[in-house]
Amino acid sequence: MKKKKLRSKIIKIFKRHKLSEKHSKICADYLIKAEIMNVKSHGLTRLKMYCERIKKGLINSRPKIKIKKINSSISYIDADNSIGFVSSNIGIQQAIINAKKTGIGLVAVKKSGHFGLSSFYAEQAVKKNLIVFCFTNAPPALAPYGAKKSLFGTNPICFGVPTGKVPFILDTSTAMINRGKIRHAHKMGNKIPYGVALNKYGKITTSAKEALEGTQLPIAEFKGSGLAWMVDILSGVLTGSSHGGKVKDPFDDFSGPQNVGHLFITIDPKIFIGKRFMTEMKKNIKIVKKLPKAKGFYSILYPGERKNKIYKSNLKKDISIPSNILKEMEDLDVVE
């Protein structure tokens, strides 16, 4: 489907579900960007879920989002159970404003929901020549190291820095595979890679359905579990949001709002070494790229380069939509 037509359709669907035109456009843009980047797990496959939660009043379609100024660098946002795309968009923009004023921006968001890919927000800060960290917690999916029950989310860690060219953006789940990919595989009837999840009996499984009923494996065992815990503290405990396994699953738990927390940290890289930062950053990348290549490698890429190539390659292409998701979109477009 042509992107322009798809964008109009998604905006229409969100407006039918009582989101404002402004908020509908923000959501549509993020969903389409996920599709362009081939991150199908965070694209159209989630549209039905968002709309169902709006219909049930679990996502506030007309939120009164409040920004509390702690000081010139720090802001605290009450998202009023808005859709995560909107509250996070406000959050990163506020963090950018704060960093431009004082050199550092720290913004916490509470009472929010799933916000898509962390890189969406990191990119905004990097385009303003800022270093950025983005944290968000998620529903239980990982068992803490030593436990046999899921508690932490696949809590992503995102870091971005300007390079003068393609931004350096590391956006990684603390699980071997993000939960969205498992849900997408289940929806499409596909298997998941071996060694990324366990079934409810603690056995490795390649069944997406069994993985959703079981638990996912963290990256690097204890280290990955510790990082997931760190993000739960930063996004949940620190922001006054749900934590310790209390974030509700947006697909399966309709007992109340998710109350996801986000934390955005923005830093003006000139605060210590001024304009030398960019010179040193370019030097840093050049040193790594000049290293001898391992067998089978023709180049050494830094985080963000591969995704940038995918994005540019797909930018002029139409978006392919599976028939089952297209059917969901048609059903959502005629909601009463």
Furnish the topology, listing elements before pairings:
Blueprint: H1 3-16, H2 21-36, H3 47-55, E1 66-69, E2 74-78, H4 84-102, E3 104-112, H5 119-127, E4 131-136, E5 157-161, E6 168-172, H6 179-188, E7 197-198, H7 208-213, E8 215-216, H8 222-237, E9 260-267, H9 270-273, H10 276-289, H11 305-314, H12 323-332
Parallel strand pairs: 2-3
Antiparallel strand pairs: 1-2, 3-9, 4-5, 4-9, 5-6, 7-8
Helix pairs in contact: 1-2, 4-5
Can you give keywords for this protein?
two-stranded antiparallel ribbon; 12 helices; 336 residues; Ribosomal Protein S8, Chain: A, domain 1; alpha+beta; 2 domains; 41% helix; Hypothetical Oxidoreductase Yiak, Chain: A, domain 1; seven-stranded mixed β-sheet
Give an overview in words.
By secondary structure, the protein is an alpha+beta fold. The chain folds into two domains: 1-55 and 304-336, Hypothetical Oxidoreductase Yiak, Chain: A, domain 1, CATH 1.10.1530; 62-175 and 218-303, Malate/L-lactate/L-sulpholactate dehydrogenase, NADPH binding domain (Ribosomal Protein S8, Chain: A, domain 1, 2-Layer Sandwich), CATH 3.30.1370.60. It has helices at 3-16, 21-36, 47-55, 84-102, 119-127, 179-188, 208-213, 222-237, 270-273, 276-289, 305-314, 323-332, and strands at residues 66-69, 74-78, 104-112, 131-136, 157-161, 168-172, 197-198, 215-216, 260-267. Strands 1-2-3-9-4-5-6 form a seven-stranded mixed beta sheet, sandwiched between helices. Strands 7-8 form a two-stranded antiparallel ribbon. Helix 1 crosses helix 2 (21-36). The two termini are 25 Å apart.
